[in-house]
Amino acid sequence: MLPTLIAGALLAASTVLPPQAASDVSTSAELKAALANAKPGDTIELADGTYTGNFKTTVSGNSGNPITLTGSAGAVLTASGGYGLHLNGASYWNVRGITVTGGQKGIMVDGAAHVTIDGVTVHGLDMEGVHFRNSSTYGVIKNSRIYDTGNDGRGMGEGVYVGSAGGTSDRSDHVQIVGNTIGPDVGGEAVDLKEGTAGGLVSGNSFDGKGLTGANFDDSWVDVKGNDYVIENNTGKNTTNNGYETHSQQPGWGCGTVFRDNRSDLTGATGSGRYAFNITNYDAAGCTVTVARSNTMTGGRALTNPGIPVS
């Protein structure tokens, strides 16, 4: 399990040095060129305005010289299909302040380490808001707002999605989801943590499940299928069924999570569970989950489903 001290150290590790060079960007063509030609230590500064297209980079910074893409919420990346911003194998990036909208997914991080997304707005998407995939490790999404996702109606519009379904080869480990506002009108869970991923942190977020579709069992704010996560100090409201869930989609996964200091409002939930924590895979001999007494709830049936210890 991941104690608070370790979790805090991981977040501190995402702190970066000041950038070394800057380029001012005000058109879509300039942005595409800047992403393609960035070098470690560069800063790409976006002027307010609309940037239409799909924007991608495959260039990495390094631990001492990350690359920064920054702008205000008035710098809007607008896609029609595909990904708004795709960091494909592009490690050591900071993405700050901008808005990403339209398209299939908002921000996709593929096979990249130490990507920090801070203070962005992501909305108006067919599927997920922010996705860490293909063993993207030590990623951070913080202080951001994600809403209005899953507009294709298939229940695949999670706010933040970590890993991949259907196996355990995607080791997008140590991802931190901190201080975000996720919802309303998010078509899937606010946070979906897939089997194969481990050691992450979900802390200090605000979840609004208004808009959950119920498709593909999307009936909670957070679904944990990975191992050894810490889920703490979050607040949630407007769920159709439960607040938080764990599942074992693959043998040995969905284990070791710690839930503490979360506040759940289940008022209005109409599902068959209506638990703040629905732990579907608890096994004292091999797959434990910790639900702390410091969690609180209003409405609903009970803090946990029957048979789950609260400590």
Automatic annotation (TrEMBL):
Q: Which residues form the signal peptide?
A: 1-21
Task: One Pfam family, please name it.
Answer: Beta_helix
Matching entries from InterPro entries are given as:
Beta_helix, PbH1, Pectin_lyas_fold, Pectin_lyase_fold/virulence
Entry keyword annotation includes rRNA processing = no
Q: Give start and end of each Right handed beta helix domain.
A: 84-263
Keywords for this entry? Signal
Question: Which protein is depicted?
Answer: Right handed beta helix domain-containing protein
Provenance organism: Kribbella karoonensis
**Lineage summary:** Bacteria, Bacillati, Actinomycetota, Actinomycetes, Propionibacteriales
